[in-house]
Design goal:
By secondary structure, this protein is of the alpha/beta class. Helix content is about 30%, strand content about 25%. The protein is built from nine helices and 15 strands. Helix 9 links the parallel strand 7 and strand 8. Helix 2 packs across helix 3 and helix 8 runs parallel beside helix 9. It is globular and about 60 Å long.
């Protein structure tokens, strides 16, 4: 009963104090049952019973998802998500004990920012799940498309995408890897009515990298939209942040961004400072909810955040590699 009660709490929090209470409960559970996290805490000299507030919870380096089974489920995982990687790179693996938790997280998060999928059509310039099995992003949008009023996966058929979008009577979301959106903008610079355009990643190796402002300006001009939305997620997380424009992301109530000093990973930085991003994702009940990422960013007092790329020396990864 304890874990089902904890799952209920995670998706029904209504205050920062409730978040802090649940975060400490999740921490104590993972410090006891997640072997890599437990070992990490021992190595850095942190005794879990001495951690009395959320600010004192250590964050696990995300690289350990490549080399260790970060998992505390009693049974075999129902799903294993993996990060995209180039040849020679070791992908991260996220062992998911209960896929229903992930589905509840991404459905609730999506509805919080965009409304019910059944009220719209979702068009994806992504590989489908058979082409990229193990992608948490593709899994998420595969399920959301199934719940929606129309749409589908169109990475390999831009003609059909344009035809289907022009004949779709519902509000629409067009999302995809950045290079595919640029291909569409150049080949079919159509004005998209009643449509949200969302990018899900970069374009390493496919096109010249562009500053976000320039990229979004090109896409806005080509599609006749006011802003480009973005999604922030990764294989190691079961929750996502969303931006409705200007690169400003927001998170659902069970997810929080913390900024750390990249030269001292145990030092938390003030709002407005651009340093390393830590993520608290309480949906990660059966893995680790406290993750030290390789992204650079800044956070505002209200909890919104911006991404400023990867920390120098970190590996290329993410949605831009899905189609390689």
């Amino acid at each position: 009963m304890y874990m089902s009660d904890l799952k209920y709490k995670i998706f029904n929090m209504d205050s920062e104090s409730a978040f802090n209470e649940v975060a400490l409960e999740v921490f104590r559970f993972q410090a006891l049952h997640c072997a890599p996290y437990r070992d990490y805490l021992q190595l850095i000299g942190v005794s879990p019973d001495k951690v009395l507030k959320v600010d004192d919870i250590p964050f696990l380096p995300i690289e350990l998802f490549k080399t260790h089974k970060v998992y505390c489920g009693k049974n075999e995982p129902e799903m294993v998500f993996s990060s995209s990687s180039t040849t020679g790179m070791i992908p991260s693996k996220h062992y998911v004990a209960d896929i229903a938790i992930y589905e509840e997280s991404f459905v609730r998060g999506f509805e919080l920012f965009y409304g019910k999928p059944s009220d719209m059509a979702i068009f994806a310039l992504l590989p489908n799940y058979l082409e990229r099995e193990g992608s948490s992003l593709v899994y998420m949008f595969d399920r959301l498309i199934d719940m929606s009023a129309g749409g589908g996966f169109y990475l390999h058929d831009l003609d059909k995408l344009v035809h289907d979008m022009e004949n779709c009577p519902y509000p629409k979301i067009l999302l995809g890897v950045t290079y595919a959106l640029l291909d569409l903008a150049e080949l079919y610079p159509i004005k998209l009515n009643d449509t949200i355009v969302m990018e899900t990643g970069g374009m390493k190796g496919r096109r010249k990298e562009l500053p976000k402002e320039e990229l979004h300006s090109q896409l806005c001009k080509a599609f006749g939209v006011d802003a480009i939305h973005s999604e922030y997620g990764m294989a190691e997380l079961l929750s996502q942040g969303y931006s409705s424009g200007s690169g400003i992301f927001r998170t659902p109530p069970w997810m929080k961004i913390v900024i750390r000093d990249i030269n001292d990973p145990f030092s938390i930085m003030a709002s407005g400072v651009t340093e390393g991003i830590n993520v608290i994702d309480l949906a990660n009940i059966y893995s680790c909810s406290f993750i030290q990422t390789q992204d650079m960013g800044a956070r505002s007092d209200s909890g919104e955040f911006k991404i400023f790329g990867r920390i120098t020396g970190s590996e290329i990864r993410g949605c831009n590699l899905l189609v390689q």
